[in-house]
Specification:
Rossmann fold; Transcription Termination Factor Rho, Rna-binding Domain, Chain A, Domain 1; 2 domains; six-stranded parallel β-sheet; 9 strands; about 15% strand; binds the ligand CSCCC(=O)C(=O)COP(=O)(O)O; binds magnesium ion; Enolase-ppase_E1; HAD_sf; hydrolase
Length: about 260
């Protein structure tokens, strides 16, 4: 990493593909925690009760039951009550568990479609993603939010529909974001050697997992995006040798970019 004035710059080899995180990277933590999560939390009980005859929702409830360790044989009313309790507990603790992330995506769809929600994007992220795309670098998303939720966030963004920029999307169904094996699977699906792929994230444990899989990595630490309630994981950046930048403009691929 070099420093231009006071501003750290990550000078790295031009990648063949870039995989980006969303929360804290392309988009603000505050938007996810103060707008998206409360929207889903407020609507989840009604959403489940209104969609109990939908096979997808029934499958999701069964997945919640399994992941929460609830018994198979329960009266339906008791099962729903226990599943909702598990779901609210996961939301409270921000557990990145697939059935919850899928349900949140289903609920957010209503908010995006009515115009109540607009996906927050940092202007620097949008500008650079457009430039990299125009430069022939393939772009992918890897977020704990479900693939459907990712498409909504970029499709209904404050900058319009950004989905044409992306070649593909990955969520927790490919594996957890703190596991190196997930990045190896992503590299296989992207069809590039891991050392030709750049992963962008704000979470050091995710960066280390990607680095262990031989990805190039840049950490985002956005000075304006630090709500006290979700900040502790970011404090160990100082112990890392991974490039840390404040925004996408500070990611430099040299002459070819
Ligand atoms: C797909 S937008 C909602 C983001 C979300 O639900 C989440 O848990 C954030 O996870 P990320 O991996 O993007 O930090
Ligand atoms: Mg993140």
């Amino acid at each position: 990493m070099s420093v231009s004035g006071e501003r750290p710059v990550a000078r790295i080899t031009r990648p063949a593909a870039i995989v980006t995180d969303i929360e804290g990277t392309t988009s603000s933590i505050a938007f996810v925690h103060e707008t998206l999560f409360p929207f889903a939390e407020a609507a989840i009980d009604d959403y489940i009760m209104a969609n109990l005859d939908e096979p997808d929702v029934l499958d999701l409830l069964d997945d919640v039951r399994i992941k929460a360790g609830l018994p198979r044989k329960q009266a339906i009313t008791e099962l729903i009550e226990d599943c909702l309790e598990a779901l609210h507990g996961w939301m409270e603790a921000d557990v990145k568990i697939t059935p919850l992330k899928t349900l949140q995506g289903l609920i957010w769809r209503q908010g995006y479609e009515t115009g109540e929600l607009r996906g927050h994007m940092y202007p620097d992220a949008v500008k650079q993603l457009k430039a990299w795309h125009a430069d022939g670098i393939e772009l992918y998303v890897y977020s704990s939010g479900s693939i459907a939720a990712q498409k909504l966030m970029f499709g209904y963004s404050q900058f319009g529909d950004l989905t044409p920029l992306f070649t593909g999307y990955f969520d927790t169904t490919i594996g957890g974001k703190r596991e190196a094996s997930s990045y190896r699977r992503i590299a296989e699906q992207v069809g590039q050697p891991p050392d030709q792929i750049l992963f962008l994230t704000d979470i050091i444990e995710e960066a280390e997992a990607a680095e262990a899989a031989d990805f190039m990595v840049v950490l985002l630490r956005r000075p304006t995006d630090a709500p006290a309630t979700v900040e502790p994981e970011r404090d160990n950046f100082a112990d890392s040798d991974i490039d840390v930048v404040e925004d996408f403009h500070a990611i430099d691929f040299g002459e070819q970019a």
